[in-house]
Amino acid sequence: MKPARAKTPRKLLVKKGSQTNLKDPVGVYCRVRPLSFSDQECCIEVINNTTVQLHTPEGYRLNRSGDYKETQYSFKQVFGTHTTQKELFDVVASPLVDDLIHGKNGLLFTYGVTGSGKTHTMIGSPGEGGLLPRCLNMIFNSIGSFQAKRYVFKSNDRNSMDIQCEVDALLERQKREAAPNPKTPSSKRQVDPEFADMINIQEFCKAEEVDEDSVYGAFVSYFEIYNNYVYDLLEEAPFDPIKPKLPQSKMLREDKNHNVYVAGCTEVEVKSTEEAFEVFWRGQKRRRIANTHLNRESSRSHSVFNIKLAQAPLDADGDNVLQEKEQITISQLSLVDLAGSERTNRTKAEGNRLREAGNINQSLMTLRTCIEVLRENQMYGTNKMVPYRDSKLTHLFKNYFDGEGKVRMIVCVNPKAEDYEESLQVMRFAEVTQEVEVARPVEKVICGLTPGRRYRNQARGGPTGDEPLVTEVVLQSFPPLPSCEILDVNDEQTLPRLIEALENRYHLRQIMIEEFNKQSNTFKALLQEFDNAILNKENYTQGKLNEKEKLISGQKLEIERLEKKNKTLEYKIEILEKTTTIYEEDKRNLQQELETQNQKLQRQFSDKRRLEARLQGMVTETSMKWQKECERRVAATQLEMQNKLWVKDEKLKQLKAIVTEPKAEKPDRPSRERDREKAAQRSVSPAPMPLSSNYLAQISNGQQLMSQPQLHRRSNSCSSISVASCVSEWEQKIPPYSTPVTVTSIARRRQQEPGQSKTCVVSDRRRGMCWTEGREVVPASRSEVQVEEDQCCRGDVFKTRGGGQSVQFTDIETLKQELPNGSRKRRSATMVPAQPDGTESEWTDVETRCSVAVEMRAGSQLGPGYQHHAQPKRKKP
Ligand code: ADP
Ligand code: MG
After folding, report:
1. pLDDT digits (tens, 9 = 90+) for 22-76
2. Distance CA 717, CA 719 (A)
3. Which atom, in ligand 1's list, is nearest to the CA of 299?
4. 414 lines ligand 1 (CB under 6 A)
């Protein structure tokens, strides 16, 4: 019979990623091997079952701050120096075997520097079987009794499995065994003592829930990747010790489902742990021989041991394997012992070896790069191309990282100080690898046949059990056979009766068989119905489950998003809190400043108040002072008026005397000379009291004494003869100004209003009058009064106008004539008549003249103050 071929069914049944988006991170474990010698310096310490700490050993470079650097690295689990192979297997490898038996792929590799215990972990040491023999042990413990007959499953060169019936398988077996060089391994052979203790595993380990309605076939392949070439280690080639043939490297190919495989790689079907390990050991030996002959360094090659498990369901009767290739499930567990991860210089490789080592390192570098790109793509959502094809190693395991199975890595480290730097690199790589996530492999799809077929079949076809009983029951239900004892030769009845009874029985049996078949068919239909119903239910449940899983993953994403948002918000809150603190501090500062300013203002306010009070006091004091001064001045003025009165009285007396004098005494004498003489003889009235400058200032402001012009008013009759005659003479000689001028004498105005400065000149010198702009100015000084007085005395030439003391002059020159020579000479230069436009005119001479006249009249009768005042003028003749 032609074998039926089966493709890898997994891909056909379930599309990639169609189930869920669930992912698992690459499981990274760490195993710390014990130190070779107890006195070696140790640089790695196991902190707890997930963390190791690296200490910088003595003599290594310190970090920038000069301290010894201590870095911690976390793993899924850390196995210390006392960890047994069994403990490690239970945690790391047994779940992968479990997956394998349930139709899922797995990749387990050991990574680390040479001598860190990779091979010890993966394969084991004498007496300590590693993960590989333990995996084999668990597989065969689990599938042992369900294994298909040899050659029922047949691996082909397209990375898939063919299936054939047991008879065909038997024929093939017989054919191979008959061959001169039998290639069929025997599971009954004696175990090689070389590795016997490595596979002698005491602990029984078995996968749970193995599908008993399936048959299994296990296949192993073993190859190494050296210098980026793949060498099949199980290839049977005649070995010529004289001229050894160079091993042929294998190509990598992709099957229909894009799974990468080593094309033409030998796959050996194995039926027991011993057989499988023997095959492995053969490959291992071959590897060693090749390394020796080709001068290769074994630590520089990667070795890959693949365990492929084919699984097909039994048919509905549970008798034979279902001959449907689509129903075959293939799963694979790859156990990889990687080359030492140390740098090239450490191996002291030279020439060819160095180049090879470089290539090997290159493949590890590519592995690192792939892991990093994968991580980046997953973390940042980028879609960078992962450079799997850059090396055979990564290309081969591309599918695992793309979501075809679980990936686990055991990082092996030797804690000795010499390995510190290399171990550091290993730890860093491990750290990155842990962040890579691999899609969870899909669940195996149920074949659709009733479970429990195998046991039902066994119950049906087993050597002991129900069948005789059933026969008995059936026989009992038949009518009893007639007696078949023939006593007579001529008995012709017994045999025909027996024949008839037997025929009846036969007939009955036929009916029963028909009935049974009918019932059996009905029951089968019923069962099928139930099966279908269950299947539908299961499918429905599966669908629901998928939906729920989708929902959960969606919610997980939402939770992640919210957590991120929460973090952002927390960060914002933190910033806002900081800002608030800053503002509050600012506010406090500003309030303090405000308080300070307020206090300052209060101080200033109280200072101002004090100053006001002081100024108030000063004003009061000053006004009191001025009041007193005014009173004093009033008194002085009164005194002056009294003086004037007295002068008038004197004058009157003199006039009386003149009047009473006999008129004929000197009748022809010119009146001027006479007057002069008389005047010289006359007693002078006492001069008025000198006035203070303050007082004068007040007068100049036009207050206080404005109401007293009457005091200075003269009658025309009151005049000195000589002055009067002079004036009349002057009046006659010079024609008067067309515009009458108001003459005002302003004495000593020390304080003057700004606006008046143009109209009126203030001088310390005595001035008689000045021109004003058509207004009368009240004479404010004593000298003015004196002038008027004098003028009046001299012949009534000066006229008084209105209530003021203004006197009109028409020609000053005449008046000057009357003044003593020296005086005229000295002052004539300054005699400028005031102009109608307000320019000043100095009439000091008139004043001087008048005062001199008064002085002359007053004579020795003047008081001391007057004497003093008149003194400078006395010099004038
Ligand atoms: P690698 O494969 O990493 O180069 P090996 O596995 O060959 O290193 O280990 C080197 C040596 O160290 C071997 O002799 C091995 O027996 C020993 N060894 C490694 N790991 C352990 C361990 N965990 N316990 C005991 N011995 C170990
Ligand atoms: Mg090794």
Report:
1. 788 899 999 999 999 988 889 999 999 999 999 888 777 655 555 567 889 999 9
2. 6
3. 4
4. no
